[in-house]
Amino acid sequence: MDERLRQSLLYDFYGELLNEHQKAVFSAAVFDDMSYSELAEEFDCSRQAAFDLVRRINKKLENYESKLGLLARFTNARDKMEELKTAVSEMNNTVELSSIDDKTKEKLIHDLSGISQMSAQVFEEF
Predict the structure, then answer these.
(1) What is the pLDDT, as a whole number, of residue 94?
(2) What is the overall mean pLDDT for the chain?
(3) How many alpha carbons lie under 13 Å from residue 97 in its C-beta half-sphere?
(4) CB-hemisphere CA count at 13 Å for 110?
(5) Concatenated DSSP letters for 90-110?
(6) Helix (H) or strand (E) holding 73
(7) Which residues touch 59 (CB under 8 Å, ≥6 apart)?
(8) How many CB atoms lie within 10 A of CB 39?
């Protein structure tokens, strides 16, 4: 996973555990793509202090992840959802190409669509 994407996902999961100053600095660094020089100017500190703060916040977020594992669970659930979508799509194609009667075919396709929608809802609630 791309480092910037990982940072933003960690912030999404654990950002509320940071204080307001840490949120502002990390958000500016990651989401606004500010350089350490820009951060230093924005937050009235040295470039080294900005670098150290971003590094400490990253470490803090990674520590939360190592203890709680929300990002890993989310990624795993997302991967399983993709597998489920693929399986449902393949089953849909098989049903459409099968020689069963149209009424049964319609019911199976409807049921598969329901499974897909329900699992998507479960994932969205996660």
Answers:
(1) 84
(2) 91
(3) 6
(4) 6
(5) HHHHHHHHS-S-HHHHHHHHH
(6) helix 70-97
(7) none
(8) 22
Determine whether 70 is exposed, middle or buried from the number of CB atoms within 10 Å of its CB (0-12, 13-18, 19+).
Answer: middle
pLDDT above 70 for 126: no
Residue-wise pLDDT for 77-110, tens only, equals: 889 888 888 888 888 888 877 788 888 878 888 8
Classified as helix, coil or strand, 79 is helix
Residues of the chain above pLDDT 70, percent: 98
Residue 29 and residue 14 in contact, taking contact as beta carbons nearer than 8 Å: no
Confirm if 38 and 85 have CB atoms less than 8 A apart.
no
Own/partner pairs, 18-25, CB within 8 angstroms, 24+ separation: 18/57, 18/60, 18/61, 22/53, 22/57, 22/60, 25/50, 25/53, 25/54, 25/57
Cα 44 to Cα 25, 31, 38, 58: the distances in Å are 11, 19, 10, 20
